[in-house]
Design a protein that fits this description.
It is built from four helices and six strands, in the order E-E-H-H-H-E-E-E-H-E. By secondary structure, it is α+β, with helices and mostly antiparallel strands. Helix 1 packs across helix 3.
Length: 149
């Protein structure tokens, strides 16, 4: 697979609900992103799709900034799309959504998401909103996205 999305596909820059806003993740989110995931490591590992992941792991804020830059570069180069999940009122980072190719699979993409432990009640709502968004606004026929109960 040379291209993850078609060259003429206009990648969505935002998803907004009453409970959260998604916008492209970048190094400008470093402090809030680092606080969100580093305070919620156990919770993230218990989230569907993350149980066997090597991330989150110990990282310094500088390592995190480099990781956010990598995600921003992937977004710009259309190789993968990572969104920060923000509280609509406070603009605090409350989670993240990743949309990347799934190689050697029948699915066109894999989506993963997490919310910080303090916002655990939003996990299913985020999964539902992103699932609907992927079905309506993205060019994928099949997406691997771990279901919620």
């Amino acid at each position: 697979m040379d291209e993850f999305v078609p060259p003429d596909f206009d990648v969505p820059r935002r998803l907004e609900t009453l409970e959260f806003v998604l916008e492209p993740l970048g190094p400008e989110h470093n402090d809030a992103d680092y606080d969100a995931w580093s305070s919620s490591r156990e919770h993230i590992h218990a989230t569907p799709g993350w149980e066997d992941s090597k991330w989150p792991r110990e990282m310094t804020p500088d390592e995190n900034r480099a990781d956010l830059q990598r995600h921003a570069d992937d977004f710009r180069n259309r190789k993968g799309f990572t969104y920060t999940v923000l509280d609509p009122a406070s603009r605090d980072v409350i989670g993240c959504v990743y949309i990347y190719p799934l190689r050697d699979s029948d699915e066109d993409a894999r989506a993963l998401s997490w919310v910080r432990a303090s916002h655990a009640q939003l996990d299913t709502a985020l999964w539902r909103a992103v699932s609907d968004w992927l079905a309506s606004d993205w060019p994928f026929a099949r997406v691997d996205y771990a279901p919620r109960a």
